[in-house]
Amino acid sequence: MLRNKPAFLLLFALVFLQSFAACQIGLEEPGEWSTNRRQPPDKVMAAVGVEPGMVIGEVGAGRGRFTVLLAAKVGPTGKIYAEDIDRGSLDHLRERCAKSGLKNVEVIAGEVSDPLFPKASLDMVFMVLTYHHLSEPVALLKNLIPSLKPGATVIVIDPDPEKDRGNPSSEYTSKEKMEREAGEAGFELVRIETFLEKDSIFILRPKGTLDLEGTDTEALDHR
Question: What percent of the chain has pLDDT over 90?
Fold first, then answer.
């Protein structure tokens, strides 16, 4: 009986089966296992309010680790605009979506300071382990604003300097840096989710806009 075996063997078996199932349906590729465990996708998407039917832009989508998970979550009535400046990664992402049967992903070759998302189209924007790589973060944030619907949010997931002390300073984003650069770009940091082991989740919204409950973001306190 399983209950008589060491607990770690049962845990290993469950995690292996979960990972194997994800690979089988094309939502996890080799090498992505550890990052998906570091940032449990279901918990992340639940915390920031990803729902079926949403239209979401992803900046720095790369080879699509998070893209395919977002696409599965929003479902056939939603859509993901997956942007990157690396054409090779985007080619891989196209092939990945085709193999996985995901028809709700549109790939965009963006620019360093502008992801070139369609205007007034997005309910949410994601940047996952991308923000600290941006060479023009303020300009890019500014160029996101025209693509956002009223009440839309921008989600930035990046290493936290207090949790991930082994990283060099160029590989994380502090609260102070996020507040400063977001403010310069016309955004407000309305909330920080801190439940991830090594990363912070920053939730931004353009200043002076209304959230989904009709509350002015300038009146919101962030923690």
Answer: 74
